[in-house]
Structure formats: structure tokens, C-alpha cells
Amino acid sequence: MSRKIILIFGFVCTLIFTSARVFASDYKSKITVAKDGSGDFTSIEKAIESCKSFPDQRITIFIKNGVYKEKVIIPSWNTKISLIGQNKDSTIISFGDYFGKINKGPNSTFYTATLLVQANDFHAENLTIENSAGPIGQAVALDVEGDRCSFINCRLLGNQDTVYASGENFRQYFKDCYITGTTDFIFGEATALFEDCEIVCKANSYITAASTPENTKYGFVFRNCTLKALAKVTKVFLGRPWRKYANVVYLECNLGKFIAPEGWQNWSRTENYKTVFYAEYHNKGEGSNLSARVSWAKQLTQEQANQYTVKNILSGNDNWNPLAN
């Protein structure tokens, strides 16, 4: 009798273990989106809705060439998602919401994003993300509200408020990206590293509007980036502080002649110079001349500049390496 009980118990345990394994892995980790119907879905949003919440392994959504006119949201429970386009110039997510159209009061800006990322561990590659509203006020193309998010070889197109790098102490990485905008078109409170990016200014205005939290070592860091402008543009500031502890650094970047000689602006709040951290190191180009920079801007020493590595800026307490995605 006892032998039967043991056999039955063993069978039940095996059944439970097998079922648990099947349940844990019973979801698609490779999904294809194609407008012509040749994939699993014709809509990016529908593909995301099909994904398992809090998956054990990364879910990769391959997106074939086409213009996807949709607002895409990556909810907080859809962690570990990668959106991989077929070609950055031909795989386009585009929508045209803007502040006045949304009409939700003073916070309408934050409802305008074409792509809203609320989940951690998101990755995008070979995509164009566009807000097509035009120069009509605040109109976000990309709103990142997750930690450990990376964007490689993407085009981020907009005018005012193109990229919202959000989330206090959240880490975000932009590599080989092409970013366009007019006013404050890279803004927010996240720690974000922009490496080898091309940044194109479309109007006389401001590139960054950081709202870095107090006592945060790194805010927005631009390393080896190229700053360009349309022919009509003659005066652009590297940044102005959205909040008083704004932290922005440009290292070894190529600055065009359109960069304002003063470099930085205080957003008409005269006391901001006491709390912001605006710095440069070994930039080049006609806009890199430091002789007329505002007195409260900093120039990093070589020792200080050497601290601005991917590891130091982004690893945090969990040793995140964005290049390992």
C-alpha cells in the first residue's frame, strides 16, 4: 500500500512540475508585425497586447517596413520587450497628437506621445518614431517612463518636446540616434546617455530642458554627438533648466556655429545658476568656443571627464549594461 502511495505521489509531483514548466514558457517570444498581413499582427499595439505580462525572457517584436499610424503604449507590466524595425528609415511609427488637440488641461503634453514606454527593460532598434503634428506647440514623439531602456539606431522626429526622458533615477541609453526638434526637445528628469547621436535643431531655441532631481550625479550626458541645424537657425542654447537642479554635460561633441556663444540660459530665473550643473569637455566645431560662455557654466577636467563612462553613468546598483541587450 505504501508503495502505491509513493508511486501516486511521484506521479502527481511530476505532473505538477511539468505543468508549471509549460505554463512558465507557454508564450511567444518572437512576434512579427507586418502591414501586409504576412506577420502575426498588422498593428504594433495589437502585438503588444498579446504579450505575456512580466515575462521570464525577452519578447522581441520584429516590425516590417511600413508607416504605422498609431499611438503605441508599452504598459508597465509588459517588461522586457524589444521593438526591432526592418529599416530605421522605412519602419515608421507616426502620430500627430499635440497639446491643444489633447486639451486635458496644463498636463496635456504628457498625453501626446506617439510611443509611450511605461515598462522597464524596453529596447528599440532600427525605428523611426515621429510626432507628425508639426510646429504647433508641445508634441512628444517618445515618452520614456521606464528604467533600463535603450534606443539604438533610431530616428526620433518632432518639434517642441520631442523626447521626454522621464522617471526619477531611471536610466536610459540612446546610441547612434537621429533626433530633431525645436524647443526643449530633449527634456525630463531621467539619467540619460546620448552617445554618437546626431541632433538637429529646427529653430532658434533650446536643446535640453532637464529637471534632474537634487543630488543626482548624472543627468543628461551627450558624448561624441554631432549638433546640426537647419540653414535658417542662427542661435540655439545647449540647455535651460526646467527644474533648478538641471544637470547636463556635453563631452567631445561637434557643435555647429549656431550654438549661442553664451552656451546656456537660466530660463529667466536668476537664482538657477547656483544650483544647476552645466558643463562641457573638449568639444569641437565653431560653436565650441568658450570665451563668451556664461560664468556659471563648468569646464570638466580630464579626471572628471574620465568618470563619464557607460558603466559609471548607467550601471546603478544592478550593473545594467545597455550594450548587452
UniProtKB/TrEMBL annotation:
Q: Which Gene3D superfamilies match?
A: Single-stranded right-handed beta-helix, Pectin lyase-like
Pathway as given in its UniProt record: Glycan metabolism; pectin degradation; 2-dehydro-3-deoxy-D-gluconate from pectin: step 1/5
Listed EC numbers: 3.1.1.11
Q: Does the keyword Ion transport apply?
A: no
Q: What class of enzyme is it?
A: hydrolase
Which N-terminal residues, if any, form the signal peptide? 1-24
Pectinesterase catalytic domain: residues covered: 31-317
A Gene Ontology BP annotation from the UniProt entry:
cell wall modification
Does Iron count among this protein's keywords?
A: no
Any single GO molecular-function term of the entry would be: pectinesterase activity
Coiled-coil positions are none
Name the Pfam families on file.
Pectinesterase
Q: Where is the active site?
A: 184
Q: Which UniProt keywords apply?
A: Aspartyl esterase, Hydrolase, Signal
Catalyzed reaction equations: [(1->4)-alpha-D-galacturonosyl methyl ester](n) + n H2O = [(1->4)-alpha-D-galacturonosyl](n) + n methanol + n H(+)
Q: Which GO terms describe its cellular component?
A: cell outer membrane
Q: Which family does it belong to?
A: Belongs to the pectinesterase family.
Q: What is the designated name of this protein?
A: Pectinesterase
